[in-house]
Amino acid sequence: MNYTRTKSGAAVLAMPGAQHRQGFGRVAGLAAACLVVVVFALTASAFAQMRGPKSVADLAEKLQDAVVNISTTQTLKGGKGVPFPNIPKGSPFEEFFDDFFNRQQRSDRPRKVNSLGSGFVIDVDGLIVTNNHVIDGAEEIFINFRDGSKLKVDKVVGTDSKTDIALLKVNPDKPLTALKFGDSSKMRVGDWVMAIGNPFGLGGTVTLGIISAKKRDINSGPYDEFIQTDAAINRGNSGGPLFNMEGEVIGVNTAIISPTGGSIGINFAVPSKMATHVIEQLRRYGETRRGWLGVRIQTVTGSIADSLGMDKPMGALVASINEGSPAEASDIKVGDVILSFDGNKVENMRGLPRLVAQTPIGKTVDVELLRNDKKIIVKVILGKLPEKTETAKKEESEKKEAEKTSLLGLTISPMSDELRSRFKIAKDIEGVVISAVDPGSDAAAKNIAAGNVIVEVKGEKVRTPDDVKAAIESARKSNRSSVLLLISAKKGELRFVALSLKK
Fold first, then answer.
1. How confident is the model at residue 421 (pLDDT cuts 50, 70, 90)?
2. What are the C-alpha distances in Å from 210 to residues 96, 189, 193, 330?
3. Residue 332 pLDDT > 50, yes or no?
4. How many CB atoms within 10 Å of residue 431?
5. Is 419 found in the same domain as 357?
6. Is 20 an annotated catalytic residue?
7. Residue 164 appears among annotated catalytic residues
8. Is 133 considered catalytic here?
9. Across 217-273, where does the E strand assignment appear?
10. Last residue of a domain, one of 261, 288, 315
């Protein structure tokens, strides 16, 4: 009887030759029994792993004193009252209306409302982290500790609405228990995590789960990169910590997806790597000071990637450059694809703003670009992100005339005073005017409309329909399946569109 071992180490029966058939049934039964025992042992081991940590009681006990409940008060103005109707004196409804409108007037008065949230201590001297939305608009903020003590917040050190982080300060009589941050970038999908917070005002509540996903974008802000977890997070948990199994804070619980308002296992936390940067800025300056590159970017779609000769969509496509920005002072140009920033790969459009924002102001960084099928590196000195940025103005240049042409479902004409007036095109926009679009064309499907202006084709400025035609023919000769156009709307908003060259 021959046996072999699989990679799992389980014994399996090797098929013998015909001369060994006698007694085969008995041995086979024994082998099957052994196999069942091995499989059962392996399955039991797998289930043991699925159950997770044996207990987090010691860990939770050590951390709970540093997690706080936050209560706020805010005065809401009453709404406009309903005008009192003209009721005849002695009417049988007089008493009813008197009572109703007295209640209405009382409800229209300004009133105080309370709200609850969570937070955690990061400094023994009284610095506390929470969500901005927990304390936004509050007139009074109180911190409630596990031992029953209560302190009024003396100062809101700073807030950042873009990442939903707030930093508060209290003055304790004795040093507080403080938490330490861990590195969220080292966490993996499937790692165990623990949350402590104040769900529904119940006080220190511990929940356990795993990391379900990383780098989640839920469209709540420009820097979304949430950790998703199935550890139960409910109303009142906002601002509380998400821990790894070493007791380090690797996230700030912020949002949930739920049709009912309760946890359904889809919960989100700001990763510590982002939160610590924001907290340090608030601590030092009372505000968040972010790096500024000064470009307007768009997604590199599959068709755009193909038109640029890229193997796959990645990076961020530069659609315009802000006047007076660091990008303008460098060698970055419209039509470049930003592939990496300061040594960090730019996977997609939304990845670039996060990288830029977290880079120190004044730092000189290397920016890798794809331009004309070649990769180049330019150096940029980052500025400080202003509250508002202006859209770049287009260069002034002379107009050239040419006859009307139809290409790729577009009827195009040279810029003229008549077309500028008819389509209300801004004075500083130059290029070739799209006067009509075939409804069944690829251009119509991609929302190109009459009155749009073709500014560039394949990264080259165009001034006449012949310029556009020549660029399209060049793309066809290069065996490209699409061609990249830079399109301007009537007021100057720019976007890239890749149009199919298939006839």
1. confident
2. 58, 7, 5, 44
3. yes
4. 28
5. no
6. no
7. yes
8. yes
9. 226-229, 241-243, 249-256, 267-271
10. 288
